[in-house]
Write the structure tokens for this entry.
Amino acid sequence: MLVLLTGATGFLGRRVVRELMARRHQVRCLIHSPGKERIFDHRSVEIQYGSVLEPDALKQAFYDVQSVVHLVGIIRPRRGLTFDAMHRQGTANVAAAAKEAGARELVYVSAMGATADPAYPYLHSKRQAELEVINSGLEYTILRPSVIFGEGDEFMTALAGLVRLGPLTPVIGGGKNRMQPVAADDVARCVAASVGNSTVKKKTINLGGPHRLSYNNLVDEAALAMGKRRRRIHIPAPLALPAAAVMERILPRPPVTVGQIKMLGIRNVSEGRELEQAFGFTPKPVRGNIDYINAVTFGDALRMTLGLSMPNRRQDSAPARTPPPRPAA
Ligand SMILES: NC(=O)c1ccc[n+]([C@@H]2O[C@H](COP(=O)([O-])OP(=O)(O)OC[C@H]3O[C@@H](n4cnc5c(N)ncnc54)[C@H](OP(=O)(O)O)[C@@H]3O)[C@@H](O)[C@H]2O)c1
């Protein structure tokens, strides 16, 4: 099947490319920043350039596709680019282009906790994007991962930076709300397994890992993986919020945003074992699978805290070379 993938060069996308190829799909990648396609073996995937915010570019890129996998998303708004523009409008554009091209299906990666409540702008825009998918008239599958971990991630890498900095690890709020971290390779497997899979059509599926862990638990897991003993120091959210608001205004890549602090206050877990039931495998736990965070140096930690950059997260693992075959789902 010819599958068009948006967000292919991202943290999740490059793993999805590998999984799609393992299932013997023909893969066409929509490349946003020309040059980034170099991460792929040029003989293994087709390349088209464009932005999901440019409907004309999508028209050209989507010809003859049978399936569209839409991954593009942002975790923090950028100057001049809102969550609504990127998630709702971008997804509406992708759905329209998929329909016009005669695609059979659209697989969309949303986020666990996507909500109609505008108090959480990221999760609200993800829900708006889901509605664009549901109302598009295409066959669809919506996948909602919890926080994703794996080499090149933002969340565990940032936590590792805090652990690296010293004996006291700051935690905003009580740190007790639970999330369900899920491995990037497992999410990629679910995405690829959704392509051409009638059993997951017209479904919205939460993708969570095997354990429900609080932020406090995750600090402890990071410290354990790094062989450090750390005490947590809790910063009340009402104190952290104004600081985050200032950082958002002045730093190129704020270590934490107001929206992220608000999201820390909500429980972000699925009730059942939806991933296992839908895709028939048990996802990997955090423990034993985050050794990559040891690569975070003190310098990386300082740069992240000062809002300058994440360590090499775009040049990392999971090249999309031709992988061994995996049977189609
Ligand atoms: N990472 C997590 O913990 C997590 C958890 C839950 C849900 N999700 C969702 O999973 C999806 C993938 O996340 P990720 O972590 O892989 O994100 P990522 O690493 O930031 O990758 C985003 C991808 O989208 C591309 N892109 C950005 N703007 C674009 C545009 N205007 N047009 C076309 N492509 C564009 C980027 O290309 P350039 O770099 O060239 O701009 C990149 O390939 C997102 O929808 C995210 O919301 C992620």
